[in-house]
Every structure is written in structure tokens, then in C-alpha cells.
Design a protein that fits this description.
It is a single chain. By secondary structure, the protein is α+β, with helices and mostly antiparallel strands. About 20% of the residues lie in helices and about 45% in strands. The radius of gyration is 24 Å and the shape is elongated.
């Protein structure tokens, strides 16, 4: 009788643990859910402080670095999936790919003007888990 009593208690405790563990999502599962969720239903909202930097007149062989601030004005985690410059002459540095609500990250786009002349307009595309999946940033200069 005592043995059956303890088995029933152990079974009840184990069943309770299984139910609780099935209902709790791990942090990794939450991130995966936000990556594969329909972007039209996400609450992450990406805003930039600006979408272009115009350096005006610059000399050839100058390193230009445009800095952009990315803000998540939404209520869920913003995930920057990719930053794709349109030219191999442009490099980038992103401080973080996952941005919490009401938080910011910095994106720097750098261009070397060596072997360039005249007006240049270089685009970089940013993709994120937002309703508008793609964003375009520009760097402008007039190389003398």
C-alpha cells in the first residue's frame, strides 16, 4: 500500500513537470519563433535616424564613414537579418543584430573613394523581421 502511494505521488509530480516544461518556451525557441513568424504579424518596428549621408565634396583616397542609428520602436525583438552593400568597396559594422523594444543599435557604412571620381551614390540594403522587409540606405559624395 505504501509503495503504491509513493508511486502515485511520483507519477503526479512527473506529470506536473512535463506539463510545465511543455508550456514554457526557452529563450532560443522564442528567438526562433520571431525569425520564422509572418512579418505582417510581428510587432517589431525599425526606424532609422536618417537614410542617407551626404559628404559633399571630398578628395580621392578618402575613407568615408556614414553612421546610422537603428531603433526598434515596436513591442517585440527586432532582428537585423542582413546588411548588403551594393558595392564591394563598401563595408559595414553593425553593433548588434537583435534589438529589444525601445533600444537602438548603430550601423556604420564605410567607403574608400580611391579610384572614384565625380558624384557617387552607394546603396546598402538592410533586411529585418518587420512588415517592410527591406530598407535602403545611401552614401553620397562628390569625389574631386
Amino acid at each position: 500500500m505504501k509503495k503504491n502511494y509513493y508511486l502515485n505521488i511520483m507519477g503526479t509530480v512527473m506529470l506536473g513537470m512535463i506539463i510545465v516544461s511543455c508550456q514554457t518556451k526557452s529563450k532560443g525557441q522564442q528567438v526562433a519563433d520571431s525569425l520564422f513568424r509572418d512579418p505582417k504579424k510581428t510587432k517589431a518596428v525599425l526606424t532609422f535616424d536618417k537614410t542617407k549621408v551626404d559628404f559633399g565634396n571630398v578628395s580621392e583616397d578618402t575613407l568615408l564613414t556614414g553612421k546610422f542609428t537603428i531603433r526598434n520602436s515596436g513591442t517585440e525583438m527586432l532582428i537585423i537579418n542582413n546588411v548588403q552593400p551594393d558595392c564591394s568597396c563598401t563595408s559595414y559594422h553593425l553593433t548588434k543584430r537583435k534589438i529589444l523594444p525601445n533600444d537602438t543599435a548603430s550601423l556604420s557604412l564605410s567607403v574608400m573613394t580611391k579610384h572614384k571620381s565625380g558624384k557617387i551614390m552607394l546603396y546598402s540594403t538592410v533586411s529585418a523581421n518587420t512588415e517592410n522587409r527591406l530598407y535602403s540606405l545611401r552614401i553620397l559624395a562628390n569625389v574631386n
